[in-house]
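Per your request, structure below.
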């Protein structure tokens, strides 16, 4: 259950980051409201996951999933480009997340 809570927290992190981009410097009310609500909800779900998960592992996974998610959304929704070096660095994050998850199962 804690892994699901952590995944929801990561998804909400991506949501609020994207809403922030749409908020145009907090000048648009709906995206701004989604940003603030998503931020709080992400923190709440992270705190619930932290009841049973180690802080270092959970926080690393939460931020890593957020980086990967926002990068993917940036490419498809905002037409952002990533260099080969940036893609390689994100791949390293994916490898690190997989390693942390696998090692935490033991």
């Amino acid at each position: 259950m804690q892994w699901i809570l952590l995944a929801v927290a990561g998804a909400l992190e991506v949501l609020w980051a994207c809403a922030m981009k749409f908020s145009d410097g907090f000048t648009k009310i709906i995206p701004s409201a989604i940003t603030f609500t998503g931020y709080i909800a992400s923190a709440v779900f992270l705190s619930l996951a932290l009841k049973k998960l180690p802080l270092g592992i959970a926080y690393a996974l939460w931020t890593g999933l957020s980086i990967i998610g926002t990068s993917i959304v940036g490419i498809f929704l905002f037409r952002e480009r990533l260099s080969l070096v940036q893609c390689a660095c994100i791949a390293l994050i994916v490898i690190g997340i997989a390693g942390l998850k696998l090692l935490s199962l033991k």
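The first helix runs from residue 2 to 22.

Regards,
D.
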